[in-house]
Amino acid sequence: MANVTLSGHPTSTTGELPAPGSKLPEFELTGTDLHQFSLEDFAGKRVVLNIFPSMDTGVCAASVRKFNELAADLDNTVVICVSQDLPFAQERFCGAEGIENVTVGSAFRTSFGEDYGVVLNGEHAKGGLLNGLLARSVVVADENHEVVHAELVEEIKTEPDYDAAVAALNS
């Protein structure tokens, strides 16, 4: 379990992010076409997982836009934006925003959040408002899917450290 805040109010996650040096846990996510895709589909590619509560919030939308921009210049790398949003909402958002350089995946049918330790599980009234959604985090893995960077953003309303994620890809 890890601790984060929502507008300064404490909440927690159900586990811990995969640590640098470990292998990415296998996953399945639902794409905007309602078909499942998995980590296996990206064999030999570097992977950036941009994980967040919902595309329908300002900070989450900003992170998808920023990673979409960054992904255009990342060789042999797939950026996967993951939330509990339904695939219909993800498709609507990406279409309206012109998001073309990232893959979006919904964790609504899978154990992704539990497997990555990012399900929000707050006990405090204000900290628990997002219970069941995914905590803002970024996990970066090399082409062998070994984790080289993991960031659980301490304050949910704060954007992740994009520079650190890109630097991890270049190290």
Short account of what is shown:
With 171 residues, the protein is of the alpha/beta class.
What features would you describe in this structure?
By secondary structure, the chain is α/β, with parallel strands linked by helices. The protein contains 4 helices and 9 strands. A 5-stranded mixed β-sheet has the order 7-6-5-8-9. The chain has a two-stranded antiparallel sheet with strand order 1-2. Helix 2 links the parallel strand 6 and strand 7. The longest helix is centred in the middle third of the chain and has 14 residues, at 58-71. It is globular.
Strand order, main sheet: write it out: 7-6-5-8-9
The structure class reads: alpha/beta
Helix content: 10-25%
Treating each run of at least 4 consecutive H or I residues as one helix, how many helices?
A: 4
Report how far apart the termini are.
29 Å
| Poorly predicted spans | none
Number of E strands: 9
Radius of gyration, whole Å = 15 Å
Dominant shape: globular
Subunit structure: Homodimer.
Region (Disordered): 1-23
Disulfide bonds: 60-94
Pfam families: Redoxin (PF08534)
Structural features:
single chain, about 170 residues, alpha/beta, 5-stranded mixed sheet, two-stranded antiparallel sheet, about 20% helix, Thiol peroxidase
SSE topology sketch:
Layout: E1 3-6, E2 9-12, E3 28-30, E4 36-38, E5 46-51, H1 58-71, E6 77-83, H2 87-97, E7 103-106, H3 112-115, E8 137-141, E9 147-152, H4 162-170
Parallel strand pairs: 5-6, 6-7
Antiparallel strand pairs: 1-2, 3-4, 5-8, 8-9
Protein name: Thiol peroxidase
Disulfide bonds: 60-94
Subunit structure: Homodimer.
